[in-house]
Amino acid sequence: MSSKDFEYPKIFDFPPFFTRQITDATWKSQVSQWESLILAYTRQNRLFRLDLHQATTPGGIGIFENRKINRRLSFETLQDIIEEMVKEGHAEWEGSSRESKSAALIYWHTPEDWANLIWKWINETGQNNQIVTLYEITNGELAEGQEFFELDKEILNKALQIIVKRGNAQIFKGTDEDSMGVKFFGP
Q1: CB neighbours (10 Å) of residue 79?
Q2: pLDDT at residue 33, as a whole number
Q3: Is 186 exposed, middle or buried (0-12, 13-18, 19+ CB in 10 A)?
Q4: How far is Cα 27 from Cα 171, in angstroms, rounded to an integer?
Q5: Spatial separation of the C-alpha atoms in residues 15 and 90, rounded to whole Å
Q6: Helix, strand, coil content of the chain in percent (nearest 5)
Q7: Torsion, Cα of 156, 85, 16, 21 (10° steps)
Q8: Are 160 and 177 a contacting pair, CB within 8 Å?
C-alpha cells in the first residue's frame, strides 16, 4: 500500500504543520497530531522501523513531505517528535542510533500488546505445550491473517520476552533466528 492510498488529515495541507512550533502548547498539539499521523501511517503500511534520514529526504516517506504546499518536515523536528513518542511508549531509538537518534522502532502496538495478541492466538489455535518456531509465529500458515503476520523480528523478540517473564513460555535457541523455538505453556 502506498502513501497515495493513505487518508491524510486536513492539517497536512497547513504549512506550519511542517515547521516546529515554538510555543509550548502549540508544540504539544503539533506533536500529538504528528504522532497520530505516524502511527496511523505505519500501521496501515505495516512499517515497524523508521530511518529518520531517509524519511526526511526529498522523495522519502510520503507523510513527511507535502509537495502540493512545498513543505517537508526537517530531520531535527522529526527527531523531536520521535523523542516525544519514545516518552509515550510509542517508539524506541534503535541500536547504535540511540546516540545519533537516526532510526527508531515504531510501536503502533506496544510489545505488551503484541505479546497479548500472540498469547491469545497460541491459545486459540491450541499450540500450548509444544514448540513453535519464530518463523511459524510470523510467517506460518496459521499466522496468516493475524496482525503479527510478518512482524519485525526485534519487536517479536520483545513480545516473546514479555510472555517468558509472565512464565508462559520458554525460548529455545536454534541454528539461526528462524529456527529458534518457543514453547508456550498452557493457561
Answers
A1: 17
A2: 97
A3: exposed
A4: 43
A5: 25
A6: 50, 15, 35
A7: -160
A8: no
* pLDDT classification of 5: cutoffs 50, 70, 90: confident
Instruction: Name the residue with higher pLDDT: 119 or 95.
Output: 119
Residue-wise burial string across 91-103, b where 16 or more C-beta atoms lie within 10 A, e elsewhere: bbbbeeeeeebbb
Separation CA 158–CA 57 (nearest Å): 30
pLDDT in the model for residue 4:
57
CA 88/CA 107 separation, integer angstroms: 10
8 Å CB contact between 108 and 42: yes
The whole-number pLDDT of residue 174 equals 75
The 8-class DSSP code of residue 5 comes to G
What residues contact 119, with CB distance under 8 A and at least 6 apart?
A: 163, 168, 184
Q: What single string gives the DSSP state of each residue in 120-160?
A: HHHHHTT-TTSEEEHHHHHHSGGGTTSTTTT--HHHHHHHH
- Return the closest-CA partner of residue 14 out of 63, 56, 71, 55: 71
Nearest to 17 by CA among 26, 25, 5, 4: 26
d(C-alpha 184, C-alpha 73), whole Å: 44
